[in-house]
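Below is how a single chain appears once it has passed through the pipeline. First comes the sequence as given, then the structure the pipeline wrote out for it. We keep one example in the README because the format questions we get most often are answered faster by looking than by reading.
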Amino acid sequence: MTSSAPGRTLALLVAMLMMAVALARSAPSSFERLSQADLSNPDSYYNLVVLQDRTPEHGHRFVARDNAPYGSWVHWTEPYTWTLWQLHRPLRAAGLAEELALRYAGAALSLLGMLALALFTALAVSSTGTRRTAMISGLALAACIPLHAYGNMLQITHHIFMLAPLAAAAACLLRRSSLPRPGLDLLGGALLALGWWISPEAMPFVVGLVYLRIAARLQGTAPALWWLAPGLFGLTLLAWWLDPPPPTFPAWTLDRMSLAWLLLAGLLAAMPLAAEACLRRGLSLGRSFALMIAVSLGALLAWVLAVPEVRAGPAGLIPAELRTLWWNQIIELQTAHRPHQWMAYLGLPLAGALAAGYRAWRERSLWIAALACMSLAYGLLGVWHLRMGAAAGVAGALAYGIGLAGLRGFGDVDETLPRRSQLRVFLLTLFPALQLTATVGLASLWPPPAQEKHCSLASVAPTLQQIPQATFLAPVFSGSELLYRTHHRIITGPYHHNVEGLLDNYRAWLYTGTDQPPEIFARRSVGYVLGCTYYQNELRGSEGHRTLMERVADGDTPPWLQAQPWPAGTETEWRLYRVQPPASSSSAAGEPRP
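Resulting structure:
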């Protein structure tokens, strides 16, 4: 079942080639939109703002121009931002303007992340399977819609950058050889820590890979685990030291490398050591398994009790008002509710769980059974919380490739199979492509509802840039783009670390008074109101009371807003108003209070 070195290399190249072909399909339109800074995800604009507003004093960890006039620390992780900054340097040296160089560097980093993901996933599969199944895992990733939603060139975000080190850790830790390789275990543990340093949402994947290796060790199919623990805890400790929570974040926050993650790394690193202790004492597999479950549950309970945010749940820190106005508007935070979404997000992880589960049953393999459970669990996470779909695709590709390696017809030696078996091999090989076809077909039969229209700031940004720096009241989902295209401040972008800003922003738009501005304007030093004729239905008034958002969109504004005309020939759905300061005010309305 093992692969020769040339055959394995060819399999890895084929896996990367399939990913490259899948990415090339959207490259022409992506380059055109990149040149115009037409990015669909607000995260991409915010990442670019982090880089553009870099200062020698603060580096990339600066106080953003949102949450004005108070300031809010951005929570993007240091490894991704630092890497993107280094990647843009040669583009700047080649003569590109900084903004364009940063956009192209971000797109290149997403592409490189996808290719690295295909390479390391195929490498992990080939280490415990065959070169044929390694190529199939590459096809699975290339056909994974949730993965491409985060890995296309227009996504200048850390999500794919997070998954690449996790796949590399799988290649280090999931290997067939029982010979001790301390260096690989140390590297694998460090890569796991790098994954959740880049994004804390990598936590389920990190925990899953650690327990896969523990299961293999308990059954005697993997070498000792001693070096996994220092790799995992050591790099997490380094991350906490280099990139701690900023002053406005709690010491135990889940958004950054905090004490919460340091404690989790220590507890998780102790699990391989506990497994080694079971083996040293000569405990049976059954007793070792039961003891590890008990120790793991104790560690989980300790972490949950120590970290308040864990007990709050995914949306527990968001007030009910914001769940309606903001959280429910973000597609990636929703659950799958249409047939094509279920097919796209659950199909591959479920197939991986079935394939790995069957191989685990035939070979009585504990770690492959754990891999099947991990794939199924991630599939369910993906349909419950679409944001997890990309990681679910990687887990499914690993499980599918490793599981198929236990079936006849998927070895590296040609076998003579009956016609029915040949058809089975053919269908299982092409399953990822068939799933993609079925997903597209279902999406065409049950098209999603029309999304709310969006106003782009590209046409009006030059005019806004001529206005002296001021604080703008703008729609939440346009806030990041406004920061990127202009020098102005905003109350908030669509980010949960700024709960008070989100509440103030929405409450200002929902204001129904006419005699004077809402008190939020004075407290936030709002100088301009920028509204679009398209807006959320949730911002409409009730019982005949018209909200500020409705009045701005209709052009029927209260007297304390002075319309600001656009230059002749400007075609836009935006409406711009200057806030008239109260007569008693002695300071300019657009300036923040000291």
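Confidence is low (pLDDT under 50) at residues 585-594.

See the next section for the split statistics.
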